Every structure is written in structure tokens, then in C-alpha cells.
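Model: You mentioned two targets. I'll fold them one after the other.
Researcher: Yes, keep them separate.
Model: Target one:
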Amino acid sequence: MTPIQQPVSRFSSPAQYLGSAVTVIATMSAVVTGVLAAVALPSGLSSILRSFFPFLATHRRRARWGRVVEEKTNLPVAGAVITILDVSGKPKDTIITRSDGTFAMVLPRGTYRLSVQHAGSLFASAPRDVLLFPEEQLYTGGVITVEEQEKVLPDTPLVLAMTPTGVRHQTFRERAHPFLEGMRVFHAHIAMPLLLTAAAINSLLLLIEPSPLLVAYEVLYGALLTFELLLSRVTRRAVGRVRDAIGKHPVPLAIVRLFDTATQRVVATRVTSPRGSYLLMPPPGRYRIAVSHPAHVPYTSDPLAIRGGRTGLVRLVADLVCSPSAGDVAGQTQGI
């Protein structure tokens, strides 16, 4: 007679059940915490490095800079090729705009012209409805004269406007921006509570069922906690929301720029999430916020002071007036 074989259980003892449950719980906590932390990691590391190595920020401020935008919508034009020409028309340098439409250049003493090219756009010598901020100058094709020594900050930052020649197709990165911005805002609200809770759970599980995997997670939480503490010392999280001034409903896909009032540099550029929210992480200082959206009047805030030494969120609200062709700026920004 052939003996009846009993089904073999994957877990032969309660200890194995416990070990597997511990591994699953710890891994899920680590994955959720790690994914949310990764959203804020690039901008956070950049802020920390500029704080501990000030010459990085100083070098950026010494370069001539500007930005390229679409007329009327004021959307940034990424990937535009800017050629610097001398008075004889000979190319001296070539620059490609960043994802936020900004560019930087160092010019020695002399006279220059700029030529800008972009697939799907033409340079606008007489643009309409271009939002300019304090001390900015609209470049319409004239000459640029540098009378100071090399690498001296220019008198006025430059703004170059482009006219789209066809239907503008968004890149994958542009389509992903609103989703990522929503994740950054969500992370800003729950970053420290989530990290401390996940670290406490992992420590408890490590006491119950020690394993090399839980030790690795413990090291990960220690690194993330150090990152959050350093970031809270060098920056201040500011969570903003862009709304319609009448209906108070959120305005998604609005372009938000943060300007340093001392240097008039664009410190950060954000695209609002589907809920109209965005996250900024500037160091302490005085700033001005500018918001543009195709269906609303361009908006510029009053100077805003970001104070250091505090861990609470700075909350900002910008109400936009629905008027595609108006040129006045309206609304209020509130800081807490």
C-alpha cells in the first residue's frame, strides 16, 4: 500500500511565520519611505551642498543669466540653442537652456548679439504679454555691451521670447512634472512623521526577529533621518497653492518661479500639481513669487521673507484673475 503523502507546508514552524511577516512589514515600510524620500532627494541634496559649499552658489551668481519663454503663455522654453555672436557675426559661444528655460553665460568686455533657435518656435522681436520682473530686460535683437571686467554680474537679466510655430507637444518630463510636484507636496506634509514611525517599527521588528535585512533598513532610516535634519537646518519648506480668484478652485499646470530679490535670479521653477499645489525649499532670505498660466493674468507677489531656524511649513496662496489678455497683476500671497 502506498502511504498517503501529506502536503508539505511552506512554513514548518510559527517562527518561520513570524520571520516572514516581519520581513514583509519591514520591506513595505522601507519601500514607501524610500520612494517618498527619493522625490525630494535631488533638490534637497542641491540645497545642502550649496549651504556647505557656498562657492557653488557664488559661481552661479557671477555668470550672466537669462531665460527663454513663450510669449503670451510665459511657459519656459527648454532646449533652446542660444548663440553668442560678436559684432562681426562670428560665434563666440553656444548655450542650451535648462528645463526651466534659464541659461547662464560669462562674457568678457565687448559688444555682442544673441541668436536663439528652437524646434517649433521662432524668436519674437516684438513679443506680446511677456511677464517681466524687477530689473529684467526684454531682449528684442539689439546689441549687448559689456563694459566691465570679465565675469561681472550684468546690470539687468535678459528675457528672450519665442513664438510657437505649431502645436506644442509636451515631453514626458513635462507631463510627469505635475504628478511629481504633488508627490513632493505630500512628502513635505508627512516626511518626518512617516520617517520616525517607519524607523520605530523597524527597530521593534529588529528586536523581535533580528536579521541582516532589518539591519540594512536601520542604516537606511539613519541616513534618511540625517538627510531630513540637515535639510531642515539649511532650508525652509514652503507649500503653495494656486487658485482661481473667483471660484477658488485649484489651477493646475501653472508655472511658479521663485526669485531672489537681492540678485533677481530664478531660484526655483515649479509646475503646479492637479490640485494646484507646489513645493519650494529655499534657504532663508527675501523672495518674490511669480505665477503664469495661459488662461489667467500673470501674477507677482510682494516680497516674502523666509526665516530660518524654524521647522514649520510656510504656506502660500496665490489667487489668479481669469483674463487671458489682461496685463495687470492681481491677487495676494499669504505667508504663515
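Model: Target two:
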Amino acid sequence: MRVLFFGDATSIHIHRWKSALEERGIEIKLVTPDKNGGIYFPYPSKRDIFKDCVNFRHILFSFRPHLIHIHYLPTSWTNITRYAGLKKIVLSIWGGDIWGRESLSWKDRFYRAYLLRHAAMVISPSFYLIKKALEYTRLIKKWEIIPTGVDTGFFKRKRGKKRVILFPKHLEERYGGMVLLRAMEKVKERFPEVVLYMTGTGEVEEEWRRFAERKKLRVVFTGDVPHEKMRELYEDAWVVVVPSLVGEGLPVSVLEASSMEVPVVGSALGGIREAVVHGETGFLFEPGNSEELARYLIKLLENKKLADRMGRKGRERVKMKFEWKRCTERMIEVYRRIL
């Protein structure tokens, strides 16, 4: 089977899907606007749409894919798929491509709705995102929930935890890092030895650094961490916090933390509610409520048995529902059904 991927070559998760499917004998070619990976194809422009279609036809003719899998819902590919007459399209929605419908122009809403309607199958990591997609159009032909799963063999605990709280997101306002920093003021009063690790970089890094320094919080800003190195941070963590202020599709970081037997405290928003079972694998709190977040963190820090029990339950759940091999098999089943 030959499958042509459309997507961002800088996305680790697209490469994970590509590698996993190739290991199962599926031939994959990646078409990407990134010059450093795959078959370079810039985002189509309205002015050169027919030229772009001809160039795209050349790619199709040389590879002859059985189907096309578009990762992320872009408006730029709509005219290509329409004018090129593509039929067997699998469309994966991720989160940022679905949020904010109200702020889009009518053209952008139309383009997204067109791709959603004409895809042979829409793949979503969560029920939450399917509900958001249905706000664009009720005429989605078929949809399937297939998360980007976790390799539980790789993300497996090998040593004890430290008094570390881990924030495994980028330093962007929408991910709620400031909510966590405010909660750390309360945590510090009870557990002054606890350290917060904040990964990644972003637009509010300097603001968060200044806040942490002013409040004398023990915070380590790690910078960008390669995906394969995240295991070491999860292994240090007593608890992982995902305090997002916007609904996410299904944060892979939550599943990885659970696979590492780390309880997760997350906002009761979007796909986080599908990844965390409140009171069993972690806790859910009201988005933006730093006091409630602090209470849950203190509860886990003062009760190791509770934290360990939630961690074990989290790993059991990931192995049952989000194992990477199982997710790959389900994707292959979708491909076969379409063909």
C-alpha cells in the first residue's frame, strides 16, 4: 500500500506515524512546505492554483498513491484537492486547526468545511475535536477516534520519583503556565523543596521567568527538550501539570506521563478530560483556578501512596486504550476500509 502524507515535516508526531506505518510495510511519501524534509511543495497560492495542480499531478503520477492522508486541517490545500479531483482522502485533525471557528473569515470556514465534507474519513484524537469539527459541517461522511498513542515500552519507569512538578508544554499563554506559577506560591508554603520544571520556549518566557524570580520560586526553565529525552523528565516527576486555558485535542504529554506512572493534574477542558480520569489517574480542575490546582498538587505531594496508585492506574489505562501499536493497527484498518 502506498500513502501520500501531507503535513509539516517539523512535526515529531507526523514522523512517528510515518515510521510506524513504514515498519508495517506501508510505503509513505511526505509532501511538505518545509524544505528540510520530504517532497518540498509550498503552500498553494490562489494566483498559481492551476500551476500548483499540474505540479501536484506530477507527484501523484510518480508515486501513484492508493490514498492521501492530510495531517492538520489546512485551507491552503482545499483548492488543490478540489481541482485535482482527489477522492480517497484521510484527514487528521489535531486541535489548533479546529479551534477558533468564530474568529475565522467566512472563506476560511468554507474551506475547512469543504475538506471535512469531502474526506473519505476524518481522524480525530478525541471526541471533543469531532464535536468541534461538526460545528463546521454536519456532513462529515465518516469519522474515527485514533489518538497519537504512546510506546509504553519506551515510556516505562525505571527508578523512583523526585520532588519535581513537570509542566511539559510550550511557554505560551494558552497553555496556562502562569496559573501553575501562581499555584506554586501556595505549594512553596507547604513544600519549599519542590522544584518546577517548565519545558520549551515561547512568547511569554521572559514574563514567567521574572514572575518566578520575583516570587522566589524554585523553577527550572529547560528550554526545548527532544521528544526522546522527555522520558528522563517524566521519570523525575512526582506529578505532571497541564493547566491549559484552551481545549486541546488529546495532549500526548498526558498519555506519556501516565505511561510513566506519573499522576496528571489538568484543566477540565477539551481532550484533557478524555485523557485524565478524575480521582483515578489524576485530577481535573477548573481552568484558570490556581487555588484549586494548588490544593490538588499539595494533596499528591503529601500522599505518596495516592500518587503511586494514580500513576499505576494511569499506566494500566494507557496500555489498554492508547498503546502505540494498537493505534497504528487501527489506522491501517481505516486505510483498508477506504480502499
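Researcher: Noted. Anything on target two?
Model: The chain is about 40% helix and 15% strand.
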